[in-house]
Amino acid sequence: MVATGKLTGDERRASIIQAVRHLFANKGFKGARTREMAEAAGVSEALLYRHFPTKDALFAAIKQSFCDDRARARFDRLGELAPSTKTLVLHVHFLAAKIMGGPEDRDEKAIQSRMILRSLAEDGEFARLLLEPLATIFVPKIEECLKAAVAAGDALSGPLQKDLGGWLVYHLAAMSAFFSAPASPINDFDGADPKVIRQVVWFALRGLGLNEAAIQKYYAPEQFSGMEV
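The structure assignment produced for this chain is given below.
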């Protein structure tokens, strides 16, 4: 099908990216065919090539579309907070909520989860790009905050390797999202449910070494939802 709508060049590029992401998620880079991508986007192959001369160029644009500038800005602001138990709780909550999403973006998160899994099974390039803010902002901040929480008596200085804490939080939230991605869930587990996100955050905080009193004191997700940090 050839598109007839009058879109600007940027609008057309954005619509193509949005339309073909599920093909890369379901079939991977090698499995997605140009004809299928053009059909999914409602354009001719000639028009597809006009905007994206190669499949590599289209895939690069798709990968970049998942890089949320607003989320990056939020974590930049979180990174400016003084290391503390409260800052640790904020980081874990916002990371889990960002990864697991909500009912309104369930389909978007499912596509992202499938693309991450595809990437991990191939060259890992998409996963590395998407997780760059995690590696440079979140993981070091978790390490700083854990030290502050231990010093404040809010956490145990256990055997956990501090520089792995942030990654382990991500892995827990990501696997919760992955298992919620199939249309027929693997188990009775809705990763987009706020109650489930709260359980994941509590489990992560306990795993990081926080005691129950500290979690009760600082973790109030109903207050976090409207926060601008």
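Interim note for the steering committee: The chain has two domains: 9-64, 68-224. The longest helix spans residues 9-31.
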